[in-house]
Amino acid sequence: MKRLLRVAAMAIGASALLSACGGATPDADQEGLGTITVLAAASLTESFDALAAEFERSHPGSHIMLSYGGSSGLAQQIVAGAPADVFASADEATMSTVDEAGLAADPTPFASNTLELVVPVGNPGDVNGIDDLARDELVVALCDPAVPCGAAAVRLLDLAGVAAAPDTLEQDVKAVLTKVTLDEADAGLVYVTDGRAAGGEVEELAIDGADEVRNRYLITAVDGGPNPRGAAAWIAFVTGEMGREVLADAGFGEP
Amino acid sequence: MLASASPDRRPRPSALLVAVAAIGVGVLVLPLVALLVRVPWPELPGLLASGPVLEALGLSFLTASISTLVCVVLGVPLAVVLAHADTWRTLPRRLLRTAVTVPLVLPPVIGGIALLMLFGRSGVLGPALAALGVGLPFTTPAVVIAQTFVALPFLVFAVEGALRGLDRRIEQAAATLGASRMQTFALVTVPTVGPAIAAGAILCFTRALGEFGATITFAGSLPGVTRTLPIASYLALQSEPGDAMALAVVLLAVSVLVLLVLRDRWAPGITR
Q1: H/E element holding A110?
Q2: What domains lie within chain A, and their CATH numbers?
Q3: Which residues in chain A are contacts of B17 at CB distance < 8 A?
Q4: pTM
Q5: Mapped to the 3 state alphabet, what secondary structure does B4-54 carry?
Q6: Which of A81, A114, B35, B247 has its CA 20 to 30 A from that of A33?
Q7: Which candidate from A4, A76, A139 shows the least CB-CB separation from B237?
Q8: Is the ipTM of this complex over 0.90?
Q9: Chain A contacts of B124, Cβ < 8 Å?
């Protein structure tokens, strides 16, 4: 019994220690901005990774914690109380989910994106345009309409008058890209920026009229987030000169 | 191994242990209670009757039933061999046991990637399958394969445990009475461990029903074809939280029901 009590005491002590270390609140006495938690659309992965490295270099004592995913899922996480400082969404609809919950402090457009076709290297399905997505014998990967890239795909396919025959509806744009990169799908609709980020691992095909369907990316501080000072600094950085340059390099359009 | 310990003269656990155990129960039960509290009960019948939910429900029950069948067909012989492996050398015995255990501890997403590497179009078997005109990824059979991969160990271990507790003399008696090895297996061994096979099959079914990671990785997600209950629930959470909760209630209800039915009837060792 005594030994048991000692073990229990040690366990309690250890957990107290852990929670003391784990606090993410920035120390006001220190120069650094501390940890800034950013939830961002999957399509921002490469740009935000690059910007975060740059930000941490120019802001000693800061750490950007990035979590990427489908914007809709991230929005739900924030509404459910995820301790985020910044949310960057791939369209206005997902941002409004957070806005309606009263958690989006100041949504600001900072980039835009359009869709393109990607096919595996060598184009095994002989895909030439968006019309080919209706071909039943091809394996076609699209985003689910519940996430921004899928909503954009639906609008673009409607505009083109194509009844697509998808074989899978993925939960975010990177999952679509992966299926094409692995040569498991003959074609996929992804953002121009994702096709470019994949380097030579896929072939990109521009779509006529893709400009008609343009997703607007919005960024906001999350109301009640643990690090508002850090959130403001990160948003200023992303919407500033450095951010615009990196985003433009990645293929994003003007907001 | 699971059922044999006799509990009669064990001392009562101390108050501290009971208190910690209560926290443990809370960790397991409170999230599920919270889910039940938040479910929009009045809208539940309507949600369950909606197209996407019914579609996912039907697909999940179909695929989980087939993969349970496959698990029984493949798993019972595997359990027999595994139970017999004691007479083997250490290395092959451990390798076999590890091979059966790995899917239990592996993150299912990794299992899905592995399945893609084997059956995918550019996978190891992909070209051969393509020559036969078979493409597995993104099809309902791919869902069954993913579920079988994660569920098979449950059946194997349930049956193997029962085989180990089996009185070998019954089989020996059958042999001395002139039964062939196959006859002994079919007419003596299988009926004796029947309850364990049933228990294992039910565990298999619930595991297959809950399969998410390997399925979404290997089979994708298309309504009516590969979008099973857990995947539909995950996607619905992003846009229709009500649907997600309706699906969650179904999964939870099935799991609890199955375990309650299992209780005592077939597998006193697994569910007392």
Answers
A1: strand A108-113
A2: 31-112+216-250 (3.40.190.10), 115-212 (3.40.190.120)
A3: 4
A4: 0.76
A5: CCCCCCCCCCCHHHHHHHHHHHHHHHHHHHHHHHHCCHHHHHHHHCCHHHH
A6: A81
A7: A76
A8: no
A9: none
